[in-house]
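Our working data are protein records whose layout never changes between entries. Instead of coordinates, the fold is spelled out as a row of discrete tokens. Here is such a record, shown just as it appears in the course material:
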Amino acid sequence: MGVTNDERCDRSALRQPARAYAPDPLCDRLHGPFISTAHVDMRRTSGEIGDPNPVFVEQVALLYQNAPLAYTTTLINGAILAYVQSEHIPLVVLLAWYGSLIVVTAGRAVVAWRHASASHNPTRAPFWNLLYLLGAGAAGCVWGAAGLVLFPLDSIAHQVFVAFVLAGMAAGGITVLASRIEACMAFLLPALLPLAIQYLTLHTALQRAMGVMTLIFLAALTISAWNFHRAIRTSLRLRFDKQELEAEIARRLRAEERLFHEKDRLQTTVRSIGEGVVLIDADGRIEDLNPAAERLFDRCRQDAAGRPPHEVFACFDDQGWRSPTALEDALKSATPQKKRSVLYGKDKVKYVIEELATPLLDRHDRLVGAVSVFRDMTEQHRLTEQLIHAADHDVLTGLPNRNRLKERTRQAIARAQRKQETFGLLFVDLDDFKIVNDTLGHASGDALLVDVAKRLTDCVRAEDTIARLGGDEFVVLLDGPTQKTEIEAIARKILIRLREPFQLETQSATISASIGTSLYPDDGHDAESLLGSADAAMYRAKHGRNKK
């Protein structure tokens, strides 16, 4: 048989609770990966996709569960009826009728046995339902035949007994068959209608009244069967709804437990990493920060929570101006940001940090916050500065080397050209340094060179540049407007200062120096020519002193 409108109502009603318990968007976001699985599992609980409605399957199962008792009662009542009517009905008719009842009941029993031994495949439920309907209809026809062939016209008492037995079988049948309303009707109509027709065809008022009462009884039984059927169907639907709800709750609890475990692992991971991690919400307020960030900003989580980042820590650019964090920029632009800035922590300790910020989006691509990783680059920055400093400074004295001197000379030339000024260059070479180095040792020689660098620094202005070219050669770049007379005065000052004895641990040494000068633009227009002119002048001075 096809699926009735009631079955369609059952299916829609069964699906209704799944919609009623649908999660809100926040749960969707948290449990998204598990929701689709839960729906699929729910359908599997009630049969594979495309299977009959589980309520229908259970209704058919109830029919067969009640079959053994019903079949036994049928044979007993049939035997009693045949025995009582044997006084007025021929034996052949009785045997034929009861034999038909036995054959039909036996067939139904075989079907019930096959159903019990068969695998419980929901897709086979319509087939078993059809077999049961056919059996119920056949049984109804046999019992209805009793109202015709076992109905003695000469004994009202035996007529009433037939009616009594048929009424009892019909009333008992609805308790067994009510799980499927079509099974009730397949049994009730053929069982009682022949009796009613038999009574209505008789001529006495009592017999016609009995026919009418039989029809009324049939109508009452039909209504009762329908109400009983609805109660069974509602009970089954509620039972399945409860089972599905309990299964869904269990799945949700398992999913939440997995999420909690994942959250715990994530928090443990974040708190164990060495970089500072800061999380802000969509309003730009701090939600959380890990221990590394607490140490970096000198703020605890409780103190920072709910506050905007600029109230917890301040970042500055290379020029010392306060700048927004990459965390705030990522939230405004909804794009990843990367910045390097200066941060002042506890006791005004300066940190150079590299910040990598990423916006956080939910599964609907809505901006819900941002997360930033702060990497302390202070040590790396210091090492980089040291490498840069070592690349253009003398290792022993810390003075600029030849490369740095050329760069500053080019800058001085550009400034002098722009302002129409002059500047000077002094080439200083130490005399008798080799004697000190050979007699007192290289350590004493190095100490003397360091002391020479300090004395040269004392002889010039802060904006001037002193460079060591190597060995015992030094160059002084007099930055800014400088006249030739000023250059000569500074050279004399240096010579006097360098003639003073040098105290080298337990010994002292005395040296002198030769100085050559050059003036921009008279002696050259670039760094190399100015340096060459000063070098040549120095050799002339040294040669002249040696001749003396």
